[in-house]
Amino acid sequence: MASVRAASRLLSKKVLSHPKAVPVAAVQGSRNFHFSIYGKKNNAKVSDDISTQYPVVDHEFDAVVVGAGGAGLRAAFGLSEAGFNTACVTKLFPTRSHTVAAQGGINAALGNMEGDDWRWHFYDTVKGSDWLGDQDAIHYMTEQAPAAVVELENFGMPFSRTEDGKIYQRAFGGQSLKYGKGGQAHRCCCVADRTGHSLLHTLYGRSLRYDTSYFVEYFALDLLMEDGECKGVIALCMEDGSIHRFRAKNTVIATGGYGRAYFSCTSAHTSTGDGNAMVTRAGLPCQDLEFVQFHPTGIYGAGCLITEGCRGEGGILINSEGERFMERYAPNAKDLASRDVVSRSMTIEIREGRGVGPDKDHVYLQLHHLPPQQLATRLPGISETAMIFAGVDVTKEPIPVLPTVHYNMGGIPTNYKGQVITHTNGDDKVVPGLYACGEAACASVHGANRLGANSLLDLVVFGRACALTIAEQDKPGEKLSPLKPNAGEESVANLDKLRFANGSMRTSEIRLNMQKTMQNHAAVFRTGSVLKEGCDKMDGIYQTLENIKTFDRGIVWNTDLVESLELQNLMLNAVQTIHSAEQRKESRGAHAREDFKDRVDEYDYSKPLQGQEKKPYDQHWRKHTLSYVDPKTGKVTLEYRPVIDHSLDEQDCAHIPPAIRSY
Amino acid sequence: MSLLRLCASTAKHFAPKRLLGDSLFTGCARTASGAAKDQEPLRKAKTPQGRFDMTEEKSKDVLEKFPDDVNPETKEKGGPRGPEPTRYGDWERKGRCIDF
Q1: Residue B21 — very low, low, confident or very high, per pLDDT cuts 50/70/90?
Q2: Which residues form the active site (chain A) (predicted)?
Q3: Topology (CATH) of A59-101+198-292+410-473
Q4: % of chain A at pLDDT higher than 70
């Protein structure tokens, strides 16, 4: 009887509870902050040292790698292989990093097609960098190149082969034999037409053999610096909004470039220069940010590049008046002029108001005057590309194009071992505990201009170099130096401020303003007045960041917040780029100015050196730019650092003295 | 006996609420799919079974694969399909410039 009554009471409770049931989605506000940590290494602790509003988890590792593209993955598993307890913090899943879009090949002097020597590759790269590259880093990269490619091939990367079974190499990227005197060199190895994709998947697959802890979709906010030493990273877990502090003796930054600072770029939406910004906020310099590689014909809006072969087959560029404007700028070569001439001509046309489209900010590439069968046989697939990315039928309408950013040569300054350096009192000084590799770093192998197929090589060689340097200097399992308990609280405060920002301008508006300004003022066409105007405008736009408005107040997968953080990072990169460009009064490599058309070196290398007086350091421009920003005011300070002219071993490989760069 | 009466009363509480809930849900479902159903005939879902029933159309790829994956001119095995990507000085594929 008693049990029956109990049962009935239970039943009645169930009935009464129904009307009160509220759908889970409506529950907001207070969360249960008991944060349980899962995973195989259970030594992470929850702390409330820096914030009581956000759950903060502390992790301890031997090394942390920020970014999981080609360079980041290579560094991460290189460290794991050496026995270090490594964490890889990445805001994207590793196989979604932008390395996957690098479909060109990878250069290495393997000598499979004809006799080859890495010293000739060294010469080509030094010349390509317009003598702004550090020759010791270039020596390191080109000497390690054959070993790196063979290592990748041993990891399982399916390079294309010759009949003998050796790796097939083709001619690409300004490579020559015998220091430029022996004709075209065949050095570019590839995997069908998807080298970057294959590289990334190979590296990711290889890294799973080792014990790296992956923290995927964790947005790295800042470096934890103390006394000029880097002690780790603080990151936001996007999935649940918790803050994680990764304490480690060594931090490797491999976050990629910042193409998204410009309106038209080939980079993914996630290329926002987070690593460069983290380093800037830590008070360290960024190097050579003014060197940005452009391509003249990128599809408007989509950012994909149209091959120069279109112009080679007879395509022409026309402005709003239907005029073939290249005839005015390059009467002999016309549309087949070199890339920088074409880019500058297009920009001048747009600036003078003869652009097309509602904003008059691009020009047309016309192919419909060519016979369609010729297009289909010579350029198969172009009608597909034009339809997908531009929405035009290439046999009837022209393709909208404008100069597009493709690669950032500049980044975080490192030495040839991958250690981040600063320049104080005329000497390079290593920042303990901090390393950088990949597009985010500036080692500097590309100098003022990157050669094709060298960037994938850069990734793997310097990713491995960072791992080797760390393995040389430290042992796994070393005790970490103490860190202030409230380290990282400014990052959390900034996060909180952005999350509840209630100004008047949306993130997307500020970002579009920045991108348009950079595209109009700091793109291909650079001259003093345009750059100065751009600097002032960018300073103004930097101040509007105070006025930012976000809409999503939640903490779980708040993409509005993450995009605003990315915008802050982009803004830091953009102001440094434009100020560095404005100050550099010469034309070198990718930085071409109309008012200073020549290269200004310590000697005039177009004439014999005898009888010439060496210009003092502060009067010539063969030096690296180091830029600092004060994040609160947006003020940029510039310093300079000399180019390293000696190679690692003068007996083995003599350095190349500067000369005029002509192909 | 008392138990039975209690059960009956609880059942009365339960039933109306559930019926109401059910009718609301099914009613919505009916109107939503009803409109769609009136416009187009029922199409088989793209389940593996449904896909095998469709006639297979071989999508014509612009860049044809080489026989045995060996390029006849250069004898390259496993290389890029179609014409040589570096013939214009940059790395071209399907009209797009990938690297330069």
Answers
A1: very low
A2: 339
A3: FAD/NAD(P)-binding domain (3.50.50)
A4: 94
Nearest by CB to A452, from B3, B10, B91: name it: B91
Peptide bond into A444 cis (omega under 30): yes
Average pLDDT over every residue of A527-543: 96
Q: How is residue A184 annotated by DSSP?
A: B
CB of B12 within 8 Å of any CB in chain A? no
When pLDDT is cut at 50, 70 and 90, the band that residue B9 belongs to is: low
Tokens of A651: 């007996």
Helix axes A528-543, A507-521, angle to 10 degrees: 170
A105 reaches B (C-beta below 8 A):
yes
Residue ranges of chain A assigned to CATH 1.20.58.100 = 489-600
- Give residues 42 to 81 of B whose Cβ lies within 8 Å of A: 62-63, 74-81
Q: Is residue A181's pLDDT more than 60? A: yes
pLDDT at residue B51 greater than cutoff 80: no
Q: How many CB atoms neighbour CB A124 within 10 A? A: 26
Contacts of residue A536, Cβ cutoff 8 Å, sequence gap at least 6: none
Q: What is the pLDDT of residues A370-380, one digit of tens each?
A: 999 999 889 98
Instruction: Please give the full DSSP string across A582-645, using - where no structure is assigned.
Output: HH--S-BTTB-BSS--S---SS-TTS-STTPPPPPGGG---EEEEEEEETTTTEEEEEEEE---
Across the interface, whether the CB atoms of A192 and B74 are under 8 A apart is answered: no
Residue A102 annotated as part of some ligand binding site: yes
Is residue A339 part of the annotated active site? The answer reads: yes
A312 touches chain B (CB under 8 A): yes
Residue A52 has pLDDT above 50, yes or no: yes
Rounded-to-integer distance, Cα A109 and Cα A162, Å:
16
- Provide ipTM, 2 decimals: 0.84
According to DSSP H, which parts of A339-414 are helical?
Answer: 339-351, 372-378, 382-385
State the architecture of A296-403 in CATH terms. Alpha-Beta Complex (3.90)
Beta strand spans in A44-190 (E): 45-47, 56-66, 86-90, 106-107, 169-170, 188-189
Q: Which is higher by pLDDT, A20 or A108?
A: A108
Q: Please give the average per-residue pLDDT across A210-223, as a whole number.
A: 94
Which chain B residue's Cα is nearest to A163?
B75
- In the predicted model, what is the mean pLDDT of residues A334-338? 89
CATH number listed for the domain at residues A489-600: 1.20.58.100
Domain with CATH 3.50.50.60 in chain A: 59-101+198-292+410-473
Which is higher by pLDDT, A104 or A265?
A265
pLDDT at site B47: 66
**CB within 8 Å: A193 and B62:** no
Q: Using an 8 Å Cβ cutoff, are A375 and A555 in contact?
A: no
